[in-house]
């Protein structure tokens, strides 16, 4: 499995790289935010991103936002700012875990291994509903065994719907879980994406039901 480590401290990058390689992981390194994004896009098969907050050119928040615009790869945030505010900010921006420097070798490896195990398990699971089948590992959606092309937001929206089948979801909940807590748009964005998603799913789009004054529910509503 390939891990991208982005940190502007050369000595720290070498240390993290050595630790991860001893665990059997392949490691790619980036010294700034621009390089991190470029490598992530170029390599395409990154299994985990270890991302420092304070970096030149682009900080960790900006890199995280860019990655989250098209990928659900696990992201572990690193920072010397070990206070609750930055921990909450990292998690609400779409990070999967957060660890403050300095940290112990054992804790770091445990966090990395846990994130990769969870991601691998989730990627192998197929999501099914009616004639809709989602291959999470390959990021593909099939309706009646025909591949349907969705953009990243539509894909994430459909996965979230199916994982919460029968539960009424407000527009705010959808914005928070699919777009992120820091999204600056409004509820009309959800309605637009739902409309497009329904159209792409054809007759199966009817599984997405509007709940007037609230939001949407996928499939039959739970009592």
Task: Report the radius of gyration as a whole number of Å.
Answer: 19 Å
Number of domains: 2
Uncertain regions spanning at least 5 consecutive residues: none
Instruction: Report the count of strand segments.
Output: 12
Name the CATH superfamily classification of the largest domain: Response regulator
Question: Main sheet, how many strands, which sense, barrel?
Answer: 5 strands, parallel
Describe the protein in words.
With 223 residues, the protein is an alpha/beta fold. The chain folds into 2 domains: 122 residues, Rossmann fold (3-Layer(aba) Sandwich), CATH 3.40.50.2300; 94 residues, Arc Repressor Mutant, subunit A. Helix content is 43%, strand content 23%. Strands 2-1-3-4-5 form a 5-stranded parallel sheet, sandwiched between helices. The chain has a 4-stranded antiparallel sheet with strand order 6-7-8-9. Strands 10-12-11 form a 3-stranded antiparallel sheet. Strand 4, helix 4 and strand 5 form a beta-alpha-beta unit. The model has no long low-confidence stretch (mean pLDDT 86).
């Amino acid at each position: 499995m390939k891990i991208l480590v982005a940190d502007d401290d050369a000595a720290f990058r070498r240390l993290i790289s050595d630790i991860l390689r001893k665990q059997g992981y392949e490691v790619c390194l980036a010294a700034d935010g621009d390089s991190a994004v470029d490598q992530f896009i170029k390599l395409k098969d990154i299994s985990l991103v270890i991302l420092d907050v304070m970096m030149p050119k682009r900080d960790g928040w900006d890199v995280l936002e860019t990655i989250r615009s098209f990928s659900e790869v696990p992201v572990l945030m690193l920072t010397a700012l070990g206070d609750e505010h930055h921990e909450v900010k990292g998690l609400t921006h779409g990070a999967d875990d957060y660890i403050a420097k300095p940290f112990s070798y054992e804790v770091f490896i445990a966090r990395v291994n846990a994130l990769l195990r969870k991601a691998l398990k989730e990627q192998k699971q197929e999501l099914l509903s009616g004639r809709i089948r989602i291959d999470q590992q390959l990021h593909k959606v099939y309706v009646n065994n025909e591949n349907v092309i969705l953009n990243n937001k539509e894909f994430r929206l459909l996965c979230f719907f199916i994982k919460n089948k029968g539960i009424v979801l407000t527009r705010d909940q959808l914005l928070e879980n699919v777009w992120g807590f820091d999204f600056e748009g409004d509820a009309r964005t959800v309605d637009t994406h739902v409309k497009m998603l329904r159209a792409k799913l054809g007759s199966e789009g009817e599984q997405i039901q509007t709940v007037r004054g609230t939001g949407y529910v996928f499939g039959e509503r739970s009592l």
